[in-house]
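Cont'd.
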Amino acid sequence: MNNRHLYTLTAALTVLALALFAYKVRVLGFPLAPQEQTEVWNVEASVNFDPGPAAVIATLRIPGLTPGFSLLDENFVSRGFGLTTRNAQAGREAQWAVRQASGRQALYYRALVYRDSRIAEDTTPPFPAPPVLDEPSRIAMEGLIADVRRQSADVATFTAELLRRITAGESDPYASLFLRKESTPAQHAKLATVILAGAQIPARVAYGVRLRRETGSVKAEPLLEVHDGVQWLYFDPQTRQQGLPPDFLIWWRGDDGIASIEGGSNLEVELAVQQNLLDSMLVTERRAERSGSHAVEFSLFSLPIATQAVYSVLLMIPIGALVIVLLRNFIGVKTFGTFMPVLVALAFRETLLLWGVALFAVVVSLGLIVRFYLERLRLLLVPRLTCVLTVVVLLMAGISVLSQRLDLQPGLSIALFPMVIISMTIERMSIVWEERGASEAVQEGVGSLLVAAVAYLVMGLKWLEHLAFVFPELLLLVIAITLIVGRYTGYRLLELLRFKAFAQGRGP
Amino acid sequence: MFGRYRTLSSEGVLGLNRRNGDYILKFNPRRRYPLVDDKLKTKRLALEAGIAVPRLYGVIETQREIRSLPAIVRDHAEFVLKPAHGSAGDGIVVISGRSGSRYRTINGELLDQGWLSHHLSNAINGQFSLGGVQDVVIVEYMVHFTPLFERISYQGVPDIRVIVFRGFPVMAMVRLPTRASRGKANLHQGAVGAGIDIASGITLDGVVGTEVVTHHPDTTHAISGVSVPDWDTILDISARCYELTGLGYIGVDIVLDRDLGPLVLELNARPGLAIQIANRQGLLRRLELCQARADFSAPPSQRVAFAKQAFAHPVGPVGP
């Protein structure tokens, strides 16, 4: 019964840890690996115009509903202009206004976008009103619709066939009536929406840019959006390919241009795209911020950077302790003090392993020599410990100074050694030395160093540190493991050697 | 590796994890530990219960009282200094005589008053106690060990360790000092451990470290076949130590005095596992046999009788 309780608790902790972990990875998109990077694009629109003598209002359509992409951040550069953003019927708009301006003006809009497959299109639109046309055009349109309908099965094939006829241009008897010579794909798309409206199919033209790898200015391209009653379908009016191209960022929709101006002239809009790589954690943070999720607010990322650094180390301590648990209870390594090796391993983070081991060995050996000398002076225990501690601090200072003179950087970081722990280790070691002999003392000393080295190597794993910091709930798994290990009553590895007499002496 | 694991398992060898998890944690209530961790308390408890212990000459509790040592031992040429919280024999000094103003240890070393004072002050400040807590030093009777073991021990006092599980003596050994252990009956300092047949009180082969030995390394006499005197008394005392402490899994350390017979030296709530090597028998098998068959409400005499019958060497695998 006792064991069932333990296993239930272990299972509960495991499930809780993994559930939180999965939620943060799958839903919030916390990165699994350190330094994982997300592709982001800087898209920029620069609006240039000559202001008139009076007040000027410049309107720029800005990305609102962008299937396949999410907005991470946006900002406006508009010196001296009043700025408002609003949701108009056709999408989002930014409006710059100024009472008076002189000289050519340049306004900028910048947005940071990243791929996000969860952004879906908007809801089902109402049926469009039939277009108002003169009689000959109406007859031609009805003829075209009847023709296309005959050669298609559903909305998708209807649109494809219609686009084929429109792009064929003059060679199609009906479509040629609506088109001027050398018409652009945008005009094709526009015409398609009119005819689709005549066929009672909701459609609209979306304009967007392709997000490429290379940096540079881009042109807005049209895309025909057609609703088949369930979802929006996308058609490239030029190639007639169906589907939303994966690198296509929809900027604005509707028949109007990207920008308009009142009280000014010579309006020019240039679009540019630049690809960047951003730390995934940053993207996650900003995204959570924008979506109003509290996961980041209550994570360690909400702490000041210096405190974050402290915690990224502290969260590794349980893992180091777990290493010690495994080494002690499964292998049976003897150490001085239960968690002394973890503290030494923490010091190794700064000194690095080889230097750490060497410095540790030097300090402890010198300390031991002093301790053996103090033994002859017959000091009381606490004064003697204080004396050893002082000597240890002096030794460390001496080693630092010496290594500075010798230009050995790692020697300086010896200051991070836990000196109180080292003093206690020296004291314990000297007692073991006297009472049980040198071999036992050296054995335990080497054991401690070995455990510290293993703990250091494990605690130094970058991905483990990242996981512990980004997903602190995984430490619940550490608790679960210690619960299970805490009930392990099998032999330790070194006991197999210790009881070897049983393995040999069975026969007679 | 796995083969070895299976061998140990089938031999019923008790490992540290299992000892801690299934026996010490289960049968030794924490609050009773002080009774055995403090040797002074153990001594007083034993005296109340009528169990023989080495006579107490005095207690040195503070730095000031170190000066009173000569007064305490004025009438006793031989005595033992023992930190009350010492573990594994650490800090014990055995004085077997004087030479002028100096004390002679059992190994023949001469110690002056200054050395002893320093040692006592270390002990009082907790150098030998677990966790370095303040300690007191017991001054007590030096055991004159029975000549019986003289042939198979080198100086020092051989002692007998009995593992008592819920009042049943389940396994026993005698620890024989060697030159390597510097006269101390401590196995990890190099003393020889020799198993004792619970039923007859006759010694078996010995062990040094993890190696089996048939002859004492210093005296070269055969270790096995020595009959321990007062064996029934030893078993009886061990069994009664359960009532004394209420601890279900203890090691009872007993010495045999030439004149006074068996004396309880100390009790241990975390007895070591080397006794299994000394007996070349797993403890687990006996413990499980005990748990399966024994009547735990029986008085000490019946428990001893059960043990003598059940644990006669060698104990076979637990039957159905």
